[in-house]
């Protein structure tokens, strides 16, 4: 077992920079969804996702080479990356499709059941220890999401459930990332995810060509739509880079609560651009989802801080 004295603890200044980078990331992140929603007025959800992958991958490529990150290719590793790419592609298409008919803040708030889903999946597949308190928090968080979904479901039907599908896919993606991150460079991993995302979007668009579907068909973007697509990709690349440096500077458990500020920034942007603002019932649901997520994070921190009395392998709950 590694002694606690050999574990490097980040300096206070590093943690401060990490918090700053994460704060900037969550403040900018809703712009991805704002630009995506604007773009879907004239082009399909899959095309928006595909353009985002292209621009994001091109933006990250110089960083991958400058860091000297090794991109590992093997049949087994490629299979893992293909699944991760498929999960993030499905997630993105589902979420962008939701944005066509739902308010940005509502969709993001529903999506934030992802840490709850990740907690459950981690206990099932990684055998992480999850107590009844966190399971209870998961149940309460889902009830909060239902308060947001219910009025939206009456307005747009089953599309209101797509953010939950999106959250599930990202939870699977995060679970696989945990496994791969111990043996691969994170930048190289993200770059390969982008390449697989481009591939899967291209396949879907090829199948959907000429179908007339606003989800899978292909159209040549006009100048405004191209500007929105460019904005989506650049915003995604910037937030991804900021988050990467944030996690290098500060512990994930310290940064996790800041992610919920994205709901606040999304609400502000959506109100300024689309005049959308959640009603009282949705705000109640949003607050329940946030409270449940923060409680899970707090319990995780308490679990992680408990001393280990033996040399057996210990897995931490998310």
Describe the fold and architecture:
- The chain is mainly α and 318 residues long.
- It has 13 helices and no strands.
- The protein has helices at residues 12-28, 30-39, 45-66, 75-99, 104-111, 114-125, 132-156, 162-180, 186-208, 223-249, 252-255, 261-274, 280-305.
- The radius of gyration is 20 Å and the shape is globular.
Topology:
Blueprint: H1 12-28, H2 30-39, H3 45-66, H4 75-99, H5 104-111, H6 114-125, H7 132-156, H8 162-180, H9 186-208, H10 223-249, H11 252-255, H12 261-274, H13 280-305
Helix pairs in contact: 1-10, 1-12, 2-10, 2-12, 3-4, 3-9, 3-10, 4-8, 4-9, 5-8, 5-12, 6-7, 6-8, 7-13
DSSP strand content? under 5%
Anisotropy-based shape: globular
**Number of helices in the DSSP assignment:** 13
Q: Unreliable segments (pLDDT under 50, ≥5 consecutive)?
A: 1-7, 305-318
Number of strands: 0
Structural class: mainly alpha
Task: Sketch the major β-sheet.
Answer: none
Query: How helix-rich are the residues, as a percent range?
Result: over 70%
Radius of gyration: 20 Å
- What order do the SSEs take from the amino end to the carboxyl end, as H and E? HHHHHHHHHHHHH
The overall pLDDT, averaged over residues, is: 82
Distance between the termini: 21 Å
Quick structural overview:
The protein contains 13 helices and no strands. The protein is mainly α.
């Amino acid at each position: 077992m590694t002694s606690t004295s050999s574990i490097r603890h980040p300096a206070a200044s590093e943690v401060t920079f990490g918090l700053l980078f994460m704060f900037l990331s969550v403040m900018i992140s809703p712009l991805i969804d704002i630009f995506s929603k604007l773009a879907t007025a004239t082009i399909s959800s899959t095309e928006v996702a595909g353009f985002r992958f292209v621009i994001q991958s091109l933006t990250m490529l110089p960083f991958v080479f400058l860091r000297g990150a090794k991109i590992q290719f093997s049949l087994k590793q490629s299979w893992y990356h293909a699944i991760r790419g498929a999960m993030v592609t499905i997630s993105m298409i589902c979420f962008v499709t939701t944005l066509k008919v739902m308010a940005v803040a509502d969709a993001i708030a529903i999506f934030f059941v992802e840490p709850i889903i990740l907690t459950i999946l981690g206990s099932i597949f990684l055998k992480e220890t999850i107590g009844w308190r966190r399971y209870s928090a998961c149940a309460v968080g889902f009830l909060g999401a239902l308060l947001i979904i219910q009025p939206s479901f009456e307005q747009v039907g089953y599309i209101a459930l797509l953010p939950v599908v999106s959250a599930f896919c990202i939870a699977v993606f995060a679970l696989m990332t945990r496994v791969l991150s111990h043996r691969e460079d994170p930048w190289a991993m993200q770059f390969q995810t982008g390449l697989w995302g481009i591939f899967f979007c291209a396949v879907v668009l090829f199948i959907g060509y000429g179908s007339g579907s606003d989800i899978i068909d292909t159209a040549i973007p006009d100048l405004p739509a191209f500007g929105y697509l460019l904005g989506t990709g650049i915003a995604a690349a910037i937030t991804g880079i900021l988050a990467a440096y944030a996690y290098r500077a500060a512990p994930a458990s310290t940064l996790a609560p800041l992610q919920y500020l994205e709901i606040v920034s999304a609400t502000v942007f959506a109100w300024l651009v689309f005049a959308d603002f959640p009603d009282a019932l949705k705000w109640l649901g949003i607050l329940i989802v946030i409270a449940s997520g923060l409680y899970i994070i707090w319990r995780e921190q308490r679990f992680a801080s408990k001393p280990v009395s033996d040399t057996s392998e210990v897995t931490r709950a998310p």
